[in-house]
C-alpha cells in the first residue's frame, strides 16, 4: 500500500526580504511537521506555487489549479497539486510593498474596480493576496482532495478541516497492478475524507505504463502531427525542448504527453513542466531538458541558440538553424505520419468519396489519446524489433550485467547510416532501457508482448490501412484499460463550490489549522499501520520473450553485388580449389571472388567456409595457399567500418589466429600478421562487443555443463538444452537464485568472475596479435589509426589519461605520437590494452586483485609477442618474391626521353564506370597492373587488367606532364593483395585521371622521387627547358653553322635588335613629370610605387623615336619586311584593311592604314608590331591614346565586313581615369591642361576618327542596329554629356517584318530553349536575369526590329563597372553597351568543377551528385552560353552596318574569345583549315593571349593555376560546328587536337605570352630559312600540314559552304552539348592526339604474318572506353578511300593521295551537276535543301547516308568572291588532270630507268624498270619498260632517308661499289644498284628532290 499524499502545505503571500516590489511565498503551515523517513519534504515549493512570482491583485480572481513536478536527488518525481485562491490583503502585506509596486497596484485597482461585482468585499482600493493549498504526492491523481478542502472553507460546511487534512495524509491506496490482486475491492480503493464525500481511486494495472489521461491528444491538437513528430525525435536524440503557454495546466499536460510518447524509453534528463520565473537561468544549462515556461517570459527565451521552442498557444515549433533533428528512418516516418492522420482525422479517408457513409463517430478525447499512444508504441516495436537478440549477458549472479551490441543491431536492421537510430542507441534513455528491460526474468508489460509477438503482424499489415487502424484500436483498448481498469465502479461524489463563489464575501480568511489535532490523527494511523502486515508488491515475474530474430527495416538491394547463389558458389569453389592445391583454377576465380566479396553474404560465406578448414584451432598452409587466404581476408576486411556492424571482423578474428604457415623450423607465421592494416582492429567498441559476446558464450556454457552428467535415459533432452539462448539460461538461473544456499550462491559468483577474468587474459593476447605490427617500422600506421590516437573520444573509458597526451613514465613523455622514430609501439599497445581491460573488467565485476594481476600481465604478454614477431619478420624477408608480370614499355615520340623508368603500380578505377565494366557492360579492364613512366613529355601508365578473364589487353593511360592540374597523395587498397598502400591521384586538364597505388616493392623514397621529378617537369624554371624546346636537342647531332653569316642580320640579329631597341625606347629618361601607369602583367606582384614607368613615353618625344614611315632606317625596314610577312598582315590585305608598299607610303584614299608604331613593342608589349588604325590618326597620338587603356591596349581594327564595311575593333578595358577624362562634364579647358586630360581628349579624337573612317548610311529609320539589344542599366547614373548609352524606349514593340538582310542562318532546331535569346536587355540577360524582349525558341533573337530615330556608328561593349557615371548624349555617334561577363578566375573555378564532373575521382555514385547535377553546378555551359550570346549580338551589329569595339577586362582573355568567335561566325574564310589557323595566329598569338600564364607553364605561374580560356573558345567553336556541320572545312577532331596540344607543350606555337616574348627567345622568325632537312615539328601548324598529307583526319567530308553565310548559333544552355573531348577516352592506346603513337598498333602487321596460316577473322569486338570507335569502324567516306587504295594496290596501280581522289570525285560531281538539264543536278540538290535541314548535318553524320553525301559536298554557289572562285578553278584543273584510265602518260613519269633491286629475305637481285612519279609521290616498278602491270610501289611519304649502300650476296659483280644505294622507309630498307656511278647519283638526287618538294 502507498500513501495518497505525503504533505499538505499552506503557502501565503509574504514580503520580499530585500524590499523589492514583488512579494515571496511563505509557508504558513505544513503537515506533518516532521519529514517522513522514506520521503523528505521537497525544498522550494513556494517558488512553484506561483511560477510567475507572488504579486497582489486588484480584484479577486477565480481559483486556479495546476500540478507542478519536482524531481529530487534520487530522480524521484513529486507531484505538487497547487490550488490558489485570493483573499483580501492584510494591512501588513500592503504596507511592506515598496512604493512603485503600490503605485502599480493602485493603477490596476483603478482599472479593475469597475469590473468588480457588487458582492466584492472591501473598499474600492482593496488588494487581494494569493494563498495556495499544496498537496505533495508521489502519485499523479490527487486533485479532487484539494477542491474538497477549498469547498469546505468557502461554503462554510460543518466539517473540521483538521479532520479532512488528517484523513488525507493517512489515507493509503493499493499498489499498482490492481488486476493482479484478489478482488476488485483490493484494486479499487474508495475513500472518504470525512466530509460526506466518496472518492474512487483506481491504480493502473501495470506500473510501467505511463498515465496520460488526455495529454497526448491535446498535444496533437495544439501542435499538429509534423511538429509533435519533430519534438518526439528531438527528445529522443537529446535536444533541449522548451514549451511556452499562458496556461500552467497546458504546460504540464504537454510535458506529460511528450513523456508518454517516449515509452518504453524513460526520459532521464532535466524535466520541469512548470519552471518558475526566478529559475529561468536553468534554460542556459548545457544538458538536454524538457521544460515548460509561461508565455509571458517568451522574450527571455529569444537568445537561446540551441533550444527548440514549442508554442502551445500559437501551434508552432521553432527549430534553430544550428540544431539538426534527425528524422525517423523511412519508411517508418511516412507510415507513422499516415497512421496518425487516420487517427486524428478519420474522415480524411472518406473525404473524396462520391457517396460518403454516414459520419463516423470520432473517439472520445481520452480514447483518441490512447490511440495516438498506440501508434507510437507500434513505432517503437518496429524500431526495436529483435533488440533482445543483441543483448550480451555478461554476468548473471549476483546481479545481471547486460550489454547491448549496438553495431550488430544497426547492421542487421540495415540502418548503419541512419542518424536517428544511431543517436537513440547512444543516448542515456536507451542505456536505461537496456538495464531495465534487458533483464531476462522480470514482470512483463504490453511493450514486451508487442515487440516479441506482433511485429510479423505489423509487417503484414503495412499495406492495409484498415488493418493497421484495427490494431491501433486494440492496443488503445489495452492502454485505456490500464488507466481505467473498472470504469463501472468509478462514481465520484465530491462537493464543489457554487458558481462565482469566489466573488461572494468570504466569511473569513483561510483559518490556521490545529497542528496538534492533525498530528494526532496521523500518529493514530501510523500506529495502526505498524500493526498490520507489510504490503508486498505482488509481482508476477516471467521469462521475457525474445521474439523472432530481427530483419532489416527496409530491404535494400545491395546494388551490383546481390546475394546471388552464383556468387556464393564462386566463393566456395575458389576456397575448395585453394585447399585442394588447384592453384591455377583458384587464380582464375580470384578476381571474381574479390568482386563478389563486396557483398555481405559472400563475406559471411567466406568466413563459414574457412571455418570448415580449421582443425583443432590450427590450419597449416603452404605459401601459395596462405597468400590466397590472406588476400581474401584482406578483401573482406577492407570494407569493414570501425563498428563491424555485419560481424565480418568478428567472424574472422578466430580464423586469423588459426591459419598459419611454416617459415623455417620453429618459426610459424600466422595470418594475423598480414591483416593488421584495418581500422576495425584499433576500435575499442569492436573489442568490447567481441569480449562481451565471448563471455556470454562461456557463461552460458557454464550453466549448461551439468546436462552432460545426467542419466543417459534423459539424453533426448540435450538438443533442447543446446538450443536455449543465453537469456533463457539466465532467466532460469535468476528464478532459482533465491532458493540456493548461500554457499552455492558464492560458488556461482566465483565461477562467473573467473570466467570473465580468463577471457580478459585471452583478449589481451588477441589484441596484442592484431595491434603489434610485424615490421616495427610500420609504427606510423599504428599511430595514424583512428582508435589508438584518441581513445577517450571513442569509448567511455574509466582510465582518464589520454594515450596521446600523458604517457607512462617509462616512455618518452616529450614526443607523444609526434615522431615515428621515437614512438614506442609497445608502450602504445600496452596502454590501449590496459584501458580496455580496465573498462570491461570494472563493468563485469572482476575483483580489484584480479584487475591488478591483469595490469602486471599485459606488458609481459606484449613483450613476449614482440620477440616472436621479430623472428617471423626476419624469416618472412627471406621468402622468394611472388612472380610479377613483366613491365610493358611504352612507345615514345622522337626526342621523348624517359626521366624515371617504370615504377610498378596498380591503376585503379575512378568515377567513370566504363573502364571497370560498370552499367555499360564490357570487361573490367580496370584495375590494371603495370608501371608508370615519367618522360620529358608525358606521364604514361602501361599495364594489363588484374582480372585474368579479361584477356591479354594492354591498358594505356597517359597525359602530357604540362597538363597536370592536381596531384594528391592517397592511401588505397591494392586490388590484388587488398593491403593499404601509398598512392597518387593525378588529374590533368586534358581530362585524364591516374589513380594509382604503388606496389609494395616501390619504396616510399621512389614514390617521393617520382613526385618531385613530376613537379620539376610540370613547373620548369624557364620555358626554354620545356619539351617543345628540348625534344630535338639530344637526338640531333650538332650541325655546322652553315650560311650563318649572310642570314644573321635577317633572323637572329633581327630578334636581338628588336628587343634591344624596344628596351632602349622604354628606358629613355622622361622629359616631363612622370605619370602613374598601372603595372604591366610581367610585374603584377610589385607595388606600383616601386615601379618605373616603362611603357609610357614623354610628351615631348625625342626626334626619331616614333618617326613617320617614310623616314625608316634600313635596319628598321628589314624589321618591317619581316613584320609584314606575319600572318596578320596577310589577313589585313585580304580584308582590304590597308597595304604597305615598298616605300611604306600611305594610300590616302583608304580609311585605315597599317601603322608600324609598335614595331619596337614600345607602346604595348602584348600587341603585334603592325596595327590597323584610322588613316587620319598620327603615330605619335597613339602613344597618348594608349595610356587610357589597361595594359596600353588601345583600340585597333582586327576585321572588316566585306558587305557592310563595318569594322570590328578590340582593346583592353578603360582605366578609371580614362573614363573620367572621356566622359566628364564639359568644362572649359584650362590653359595648363594636364597630361591625363590631353590623353583622354586624344582618345575622344581617336574614336571620332574611327567613326569618320566608316562609310555613312542614310537609312537611319529603315533598319535597326541593335536588333533588340539594349541596355537599360544606365538610367540612374551621374549625368555626363560626352557619350550616349543605348537604351530602347519600348523594348516590347515589335515590327512586322524581319530585318532586311536575308543572309545568315540559325542553328539546328533542337528542343525549345528554356529562356529567350537576344531579345531583352543585354546586361541583365548576361547577368542571368529575366528577359525583357519577346523571346524566341532556342535562344534565337526576336524577329522584331526596334526602329529608333538614330543609329550609332560605333558600339562600345565593355564591363558594366567601367561605364558607371555615364549618361546618354544623342550628339555623339558612339554608344555604350555595358554587359556583365565572367572573369578569368570564374573560368578557372568553373573548369575545376567541370573536370571533377567529367572525371570523378571515386566510384561512390550513391552519395555524390550525379553527372548532370555536377555539370550544372560547374556553370561551364552557362559561360559558353554567355560567350555565344555576346558574339551573336556583335555579329548582328556588324551585319547591320554599325562598327563594334570590344573592350573587356585587360583585352587578352574574354575580348579575344569574343572577337575570334565574331570573325568565325561572320567570315566563311575562318571556317577553313587555313583561315582558322590564321585566326588563331592573329587574334590569340599576335594579340598576346597569355598562354604561358593561363596554362601555368612555368614555376612563376604555378600559383595562378590553370585557366582554360582558349579551351573555352574551342568549346564554343565545337558548339557552332555541331549546329552547322556543313560550314566547316575542319573536323571536330581538329578542335580536340588543338585543345590537347595547346596545353601539352609538345609544340612551341602555344608557348609564351606575346610576340615580344617570342622575339626575345628568337622564336618568331625562326621557321623561315632555318629548316635543315626533315626534323621534329616545332610548330603545331607544320605538324597539321604534314599529317593532312597522309590522312584526312582533320578534314570534314560534309564541308559544303555557302560563302556569303553569316552563322547565328542558338546559345541557350538547352541547345548546348557536352563536348565529348571531356568525356571519352581510349584505354587501348591512350589519347589519340599524338598521331605517331596512335598509329602504333599492338597487333603484328599483315606482311609479317606467316604465309599459309589460317585466314584471320575480320570481326572485332569494340569495347567502350577501351577502343576508339571511329578507328575501329571509320565513317563511310574514309572507308571508301581505304577501299580505293586497296583496290589500286591490287590492280598494280600506284595508290594516290586521298586529297587527289577526293577532289576528283568532287570535280566530277560538279561537272555532272551543271544546270543544263542533264545529269544529277547536285548543285540544285544542295540549294534546295532547306536551311534547317542543311544545318542538321550532325544527324546526317551519324546516319547511314554518309557514303552518299559525297554527291553534294561542294557547290558552285561558293564562287561569289574572287578568291574562292580562283581557288576552285585551280582545284578543278588539277583534279581533272589525271583520269583513272590513264596508264603510262609522260607526266606520270618524272624519271625512269633500270635498277637492280634486292628481293625480300633470301630472294635474289633482279633488274626492274623503275618509274619515279613526282605527282603521285611514288616510286613504282615494272618487269620491263613496256609492261603495264605494276609489280610494286614505294610510297615516298614513308621514305625516311636515301643513303649509299654496300653490295650484298648475289649482287651484280661487274658494277662499281658506289653504284649501290639504300632507300630506308618506315617499314623496311630497300637495296638498289644502278648500272654505273653517275646514274646511281642521278637516281639519288631525283628521289631527294622529290622528297624536299613534298
Please tell me about this protein's structure.
A hairpin with a 4-residue loop joins strand 13 (307-311) and strand 14. The protein is α+β, with helices and mostly antiparallel strands and 1894 residues long. Helix content is 37%, strand content 13%. The protein contains 61 helices and 45 strands. Strands 25-24-23-22-28-27-26 form a seven-stranded antiparallel beta sheet.
What is the number of E strands? 45
Helix content: 25-40%
Molecular shape: elongated
* Radius of gyration of CA atoms, rounded to a whole number: 48 Å
What topology, given as strand order, has the largest sheet?
25-24-23-22-28-27-26
Low-confidence stretches: 98-121, 178-186, 555-562, 707-722, 779-787, 789-822, 1034-1055, 1062-1118, 1141-1146, 1218-1234, 1257-1303, 1308-1349, ...
Q: Helices and strands: which structural class?
A: alpha+beta
Distance between the termini: 117 Å
Report the sheet-strand fraction. Answer: 5-15%
Mean pLDDT: 75
How many helix segments? 61
Largest sheet: 7 strands, antiparallel
